[in-house]
């Protein structure tokens, strides 16, 4: 084709385009832009709409009832956990079970984890919690079997609690805030066979000596503070554990009591104890065990030494030692 023919062809095409109405060109341009956008929108809508019969998973972090009727945690992530905290269910290997402690002074929370963690439970009468209990193995370190003991509970009351653990890599795991109702001590728990014969005046004295103290948190002074949430623990003294309380005034005593501490593995339970007055006469041994053991015995004196006579060994000690009587007037 010659140059003149090419020029004629291009001129003809130009003339054809110029003859197309302007509204047609605008409509064509609109179609090119709008149609793909409309198609994309429709595809998104179709993809985000569940098909008939599909089930949308419920929110995680719910609770289910444990086998004993108390609340336990269910698998899933918690919706109210702080940033950086992982759900406890991520490492939870067994259902949470809460049962009365044989001592009658609280409840044991039992749960296993898939990794070793240092475990604790915070609890209280409201969702603000306020109290904390840790694994009763005082040697420290991480474990996979956990049994923290919550003390100071009132039978029939409902309590809130949260289980948490920290792993060896520093990761923190927390459950949601759950609830349980404390039902009091179990049928086979130790009970008070003898009622205290007079008011407990042990707190009027001061602890002047003990065989040993596991740590400051388990100091001997805890044994006569009338607080069941604290306790004295020896550092593995077993049957050789003892504690001495001294009074400023001579006490007229009608009886003594011993509330043993205990570990959930069965150790640290005092089975019998003796009381020595002013470094002279020794009374007992008196039978003890889980719960409060009361012995009726009469004497007068300024200083009382409580000795563990027999035990299940380990970190023996006392939640409370009690002295029933009054100061000489």
What does this protein structure show overall?
With 329 residues, the chain is mainly beta. β1 (63-65) and β2 form a beta hairpin. The chain is elongated. 13% of the residues lie in helices and 40% in strands. The chain has two helices and 18 strands. Strands 3, 4, 5, 6, 7, 8, 9, 10 and 11 form a nine-stranded mixed β-sheet that branches. Strands 12, 13, 14, 15, 16, 17 and 18 form a seven-stranded antiparallel β-sheet that branches. The protein has helices spanning 3-18, 22-48; strands at residues 63-65, 71-73, 86-87, 97-100, 106-124, 131-134, 143-146, 149-151, 158-167, 172-174, 178-181, 206-210, 232-233, 242-260, 270-277, 282-287, 292-311, 317-327. Residues 2-20, 23-78 and 186-192 have low confidence and may be disordered. The protein folds into two domains: 63-181, Immunoglobulins (Immunoglobulin-like, Sandwich); 202-327, Galactose-binding domain-like (Jelly Rolls, Sandwich), CATH 2.60.120.
Annotate the secondary structure layout.
Layout: H1 3-18, H2 22-48, E1 63-65, E2 71-73, E3 86-87, E4 97-100, E5 106-124, E6 131-134, E7 143-146, E8 149-151, E9 158-167, E10 172-174, E11 178-181, E12 206-210, E13 232-233, E14 242-260, E15 270-277, E16 282-287, E17 292-311, E18 317-327
Parallel strand pairs: 3-10
Antiparallel strand pairs: 1-2, 4-5, 5-6, 5-7, 5-8, 5-9, 9-10, 9-11, 12-14, 13-18, 14-17, 14-18, 15-16, 15-17
């Amino acid at each position: 084709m010659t140059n003149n023919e090419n020029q004629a062809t291009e001129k003809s095409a130009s003339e054809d385009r110029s003859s197309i109405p302007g509204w047609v060109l605008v409509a064509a341009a609109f179609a090119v832009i709008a149609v793909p956008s409309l198609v994309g929108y429709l595809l998104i809508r179709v993809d985000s709409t569940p098909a008939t019969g599909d089930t949308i998973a419920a929110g995680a972090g719910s609770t289910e009832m444990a086998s004993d009727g108390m609340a336990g945690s269910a698998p899933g992530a918690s919706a109210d956990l702080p940033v950086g905290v992982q759900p406890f269910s991520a490492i939870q290997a067994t259902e949470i079970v809460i049962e009365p402690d044989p001592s009658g002074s609280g409840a044991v929370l039992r749960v296993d984890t898939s990794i070793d963690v240092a475990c604790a439970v915070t609890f209280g009468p409201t969702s603000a919690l306020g109290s904390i209990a840790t694994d009763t193995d005082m040697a420290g370190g991480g474990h996979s079997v956990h049994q923290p003991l919550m003390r100071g509970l009132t039978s029939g009351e409902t309590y809130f609690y949260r289980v948490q653990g920290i792993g060896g890599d520093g990761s923190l795991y927390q459950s949601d805030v759950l609830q349980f109702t404390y039902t009091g001590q179990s049928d086979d728990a130790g009970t008070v066979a003898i009622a205290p014969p007079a008011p407990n005046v042990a707190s009027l004295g001061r602890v002047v000596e003990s065989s040993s103290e596991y740590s400051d948190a388990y100091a001997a002074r805890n044994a006569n503070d009338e607080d069941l949430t604290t306790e004295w623990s020896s550092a593995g003294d077993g049957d050789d554990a003892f504690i001495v309380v001294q009074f400023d005034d001579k006490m007229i005593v009608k009886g003594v009591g011993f509330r043993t501490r205990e570990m959930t593995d069965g150790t640290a339970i005092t089975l019998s104890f003796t009381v020595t007055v002013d470094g002279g006469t020794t009374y007992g041994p008196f039978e003890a065990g889980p719960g409060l053991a009361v012995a009726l015995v009469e004497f007068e004196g300024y200083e009382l030494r409580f000795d563990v006579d027999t035990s299940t060994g380990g970190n023996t000690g006392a939640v409370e030692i009690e002295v029933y009587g009054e100061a000489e007037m």
